[in-house]
Amino acid sequence: MSKKQQKDKKMQSQPQNEEQVKADIEIMSKTVETGKEPDIAQEIIDYKDKYLRTMAEFENYRKRTNAEKADWIRHATKELALHICDVLDNFERALLQANSDDLDASFVEGMRLIEKQLASALGKEGIKKIEALGQEFDPEYHEALAHIPSEYDENIVAAIIQNGYTMHERVIRPVRVAVSNGNIMNTQED
């Protein structure tokens, strides 16, 4: 076996880290400059360059897929969360109606505690209610269903028709709102 074949076999059998590959590239570059075996040295440089690029591409792919997987896991419960948000909205509506004297105070207090516990459980999963009343209309968070006259300026959310929620800062259901057209004075004069 010639020295060249032994050297090639030795290079193939030894795992190399990135720093070793860079050092070998530098040595091969000097070999090319001095004129010793330019064809083989250039091939080695090319293969090592391809190797480094492939390793970098693989590392980027690995990072990207790990990030996508983490994002998928975080948002996998979106549908279940929306169903639970509907239940929370119904609790809120029931408590708004519970102000009548017909109901037992302890029953109403129990309902409030259940609502708080449900909201807390959703909060732990990164689900938050979008506050919209009195805010400027934002199509990213709000879905306008009507324009109404109100005491608010134009393009301000005047009423909430259905609550909206975010999950990990991403809207999973926009707030359905009525937006003020700012004409309360004009409607009162008519």
Describe the model.
The chain is α+β, with helices and mostly antiparallel strands. It has three domains: 16-75; 77-125; 127-190, Roll (Nucleotide Exchange Factor Grpe, Chain A, domain 2), CATH 2.30.22. The protein is 59% helix and 15% strand. The chain is built from six helices and six strands. It has helices spanning 3-13, 18-34, 38-75, 78-97, 105-124, 184-189, and strands spanning 127-129, 142-148, 157-162, 165-167, 170-173, 175-180. The strands form two sheets. It has a three-stranded antiparallel sheet with strand order 1-4-5. Strand 4 and strand 5 form a beta hairpin. Helix 2 (18-34) runs antiparallel to helix 3. The protein is elongated and about 95 Å long. The mean pLDDT is 80.
Strand content: 15-25%
Q: What is the mean pLDDT?
A: 80
The CATH architecture of the largest domain can be named as Roll
Give the class from helix and strand content and strand pairing. Answer: alpha+beta
> Largest sheet, described in full?
3 strands, antiparallel
Quickly count the domains. 3
What's the tally of helices?
A: 6
**Rg result:** 33 Å
Cα distance spanning the termini: 106 Å
Which of globular, elongated, flat, extended, rod-shaped describes the shape?
elongated
- What's the CATH C level of the largest domain? Mainly Beta
**Residues in helix, %:** 55-70%
* Biggest sheet strand line-up: 1-4-5
CATH superfamily of the largest domain: Head domain of nucleotide exchange factor GrpE
Number of strands: 6
Examine the coordinates and then state which fold CATH places here, giving the name of the CATH topology of the largest domain.
Answer: Nucleotide Exchange Factor Grpe, Chain A, domain 2
How would you spell out the order of helices and strands?
HHHHHEEEEEEH
